[in-house]
Amino acid sequence: MKSPSLMSEKRPAPSAIIGSRWARHIQIGWMMVGIVLITWGLRLWGSGTVAAWAPLPSTILSGTGLALVSLATLVRNRSHWRIIEWVAVILVVAGLLFWTGTQIVSNPSYMTDEMAFDQWAATLWVHGINPYGRSLAAAFNAYQVSPDRFTWTLSGKPVTLLSYPALAFEMYAPAIALGWTNQVAVWFNVLAWAVGMVLAFALVPRRVRPWILVLASLSVYIGFAQGGVTDALYIPFLVLAAWGWDRYPQARGWAAIWPPIVMGLALGIKQTPWIIWPFLVMGFIGEARALGMNRQSIIRMVWRYTWISGVVFFVPNLPFIVDNPGTWLGGVLAPLLSKTVPDGQGLITLSLFEPWGSGSLHAFTWLSIVILLFLLVVYPLTYPRLKSLTFLFPAIALFFATRSFASYLLMLIPVTVVAVATTRSPKIRTPLTPKRKQVVIGGVGLSLILMAAAVALPGPVGLQLDGLHTSGQLATVDRVTVTATNHGNQAVHPHFTANIGGVMTAFWTPIQGPSSLGPHQSATYTLAAPNFGAMPPISGGFQIMAFTAKSETVTRTPIVLPNAWHLSVVPSAVNKPVPKNHVIVFTVQILNRWNQPVQAGGIPVYFGQVIYAQRGPQTGQSVINRGFVGQTPVKAVTNNLGQARFTVKDVTPTSDPIYYEANLVNSQNFYPFGFSQMVPVRFVK
Question: Whole-prediction pTM value?
């Protein structure tokens, strides 16, 4: 039984345990930042053989991360903690920069055409050439952009024209003019993300700060920044524009000038902030009305924000507008007007992967437009109910567009966090009027109807895979045969490509089949992969897709799984030299996609040998089963357990090891598949 003194003793409240000024959720937040620092260290850990300097920052980041987790539970002095906070910021930024360096060393190629185009456009501009309206195809080779990273039109041609406002490339120009040409776009992207992260950290309340560092260090965001998603360039400006934006109607002096300046800079980099601008202005009007400002004051405030942000947008673009307004306008409006292939992770995913839709890509376009217009109407009618979404509306509308990339959906979330954390919480005083409820219900209903039409309308072309041809030992599909049937009443001109894991390859070359398919006609097409990167691996799934440019439709074959089996060799490694004439027994097991043994008897298994010598491959001289010296491959059939047995001995050892590998062969098209791991064996005399 407990003593009376112990029973009467009160347990201290959690806040008292960790300090009266130190909330438990903040403590946990900084423990999470410690985990983030450890993660940065782990990201660098495996790069020691690529970048000799990587192990030192890896160790420092991991160690300080562990220390931060400990300090979050110990330090209670707020002045000391301010120093620790900024040390954490510096270390996170350092981790980002060091990690970027290792990624560049590992793969210096540019991962997106947009980044390559921007840097090439800056290079042209530095040399006095207007990049608008000019082909930028030279950037593909200059920055080693893979064809599978091109932006393709529905007719199978790559987009080669500049498609962004001028500030998107002018930011790079000073560095290029000073002679810095290597990886300029990558470093500017990453530095912009780092600056945006630091600004957000400094501007939000202290209780939110640790979560800014966690958010900014997520793999998807740093992958965007380093991988070539140039949205990172406008993030610092949007962070400033979002900071306490609802105070703008009351702003005077310099506080009324700099917010439209930073917004104008964001508008001048990419088109996504364009969608934010009208919502932001309507938000100003809603706040001004809540403050009781008169109509003239509201008009002056809106006009001030409009003309300042407009001037800041147009000044960097002015040289190109004066030089050739048509090519400039065509460039900045290209994402809205060009007939590019549908792509992304939004609603369009259903029509890219599933066997239904999209008989009309226009339906997706109209759906996104209707939803955007609906939001533009509902936002002021219901203000301030949707106030917290002011900077997120582009992501909502673009989710339904034909091109709805993850960057469109994710990059505005950190900005929205800053806006929500630094603005006044909306106070809902009155319910919606019946008429406004009708507007909301009507808009939602119309959106649902268009959504159903977009994902349900069947394409005019039916597509069926008839056969495939592989590259043999390279284990890729290099040619396919498909039957296309036009179910419509008008002739179509199909253009074909492959979808490999969500990535659309360069368009495939028709080596047989008509260019035009008449109404209710069928034709057989033989399609060849245009390059190695466009060849799907036979170990994974893929789809063949057909696009029509005039009617703007897409159809696809069902997902193709060339094989579901593969092989495993036991033993998987022979780590010691094997004496001449010594017999090794290999057991080859058939496995399914989940690495479970397949108990299938009578299946032919082929076991091959080769020497990968320094000057090229040579034939191995071992004896497999009862074959002759150097015979490869040798066939054996599986027993009821799905196992095939091979005995190996070498009669003429060489200085190079012999590599053994097993495979299966398709019984209809006779291509090899299901390759096992390679097992090198070094034979000695």
Answer: 0.90
